[in-house]
Amino acid sequence: MERQLTLIPHASIHPGQINLYNEIQWEPSRPIKYDSSGNELQHSVKYQHLLTSTRSAEGHVSDIAKRKLKKALNYFLFVSDEKTVHLNYSGRKFKFKLAFVTLTLPSSQVHSDNEIKSKCLNSFLIELKKFYKVHNYIWRAEKQKNGNIHFHLLVDKFIPYQELRDRWNRIINKLGYVDRYRENQINFFRNGFRVRPELLASWPKDKQLQAYKRGSKLHWNSPNSTDIHSIRNIQNIKLYISKYLTKQEPNNEVAQEQTEKVISQGGRIWGCNYELSNIKGAQTILDNELKDEIDRLADDPGVKIISEQYYTIIIFDFQLFDQYKCSRLFQLFASYIFETFHYSMQLKFDSQAF
């Protein structure tokens, strides 16, 4: 029986972007390929070289990883609503969309990057899920100039600053990092307060004295190993965070010589929760009704269209779904968002308009 190849038009719908492409279907089945000796080629053997990789991150984010990170960030921002937090101890309240957390080591790194990720970062993420109901997150690992690994973490829940610090310090002290910090501080200040001249440019003497008094009072058991701030007032949140998460390690030859034994990143340098790492979008066969809706979108002067040989990308403002009455496209995407992230979209559209 002669085999027929059929191209089936498909669309995948994302926040502000629709991808158009063709899926290949063979009838009755995919044709069998043979090698030069007439033996049937096995798919697993033919493509075995694609299943293994010798790549090493070495602190760099590849182009593929950048695209995945940006896609995850795009969805993360889309399903994150603005929240209002009331602080009981001060009575103050503020609004935020996401929180940007930095986690550092308070003493010199003596374990491998992978061990710190496995025993510290992973434990920290587990506790955030358990105690603060954090579901969506993105993390990025970087090297400091001193060779220590540190992490940037994006979450959509409010976490009190002191609780965040206490949790991280407790977790990293399983590997002794707070104990070593305390020993270093006790030794450095054994004769009382001393100014660190090398830090004066960014840390004035009065601030150093305040930190000394606080550290002494707490017996050096609570190092300033965390930083957290809300992200709300930055004009283009997506651009700011995307640039921060995908930036490359600086090419600092002096720092590299000083830390050559630990500067190379081991293992993954970024990650996110399962839902953000497996984004497919709302995928569907492209019928005439959907094609009509996409054509209406594409005619808008503000829409950007990228056409290549095997695919087309349409980039648009999500609110155009309302303006051009794209009910099918919206419903498909809304269903995908709900099934994947349990996020119920609050329609700004007039349901009577459809």
What distinguishing features does this structure have?
354 residues, alpha+beta, Alpha-Beta Plaits, 2 domains, elongated, disordered C terminus
| Spatial order of the strands forming the largest sheet | 10-1-2-12-11
> Which architecture of the largest domain per CATH?
2-Layer Sandwich
Low-confidence stretches: 43-57, 251-264, 347-354
How large is the share of residues in beta strands? 15-25%
- The level 1 CATH classification of the largest domain is Alpha Beta
Find the CATH topology of the largest domain: Alpha-Beta Plaits
Sheet with most strands: 5 strands, antiparallel
| Percent helix range | 25-40%
- Rg over alpha carbons: 26 Å
Write the H/E string, N to C.
Answer: EEHHEEEHEEHHHEHHEHEHEEHH
Distance between the termini: 47 Å
* Beta strands, count: 12
The overall pLDDT, averaged over residues, is: 83
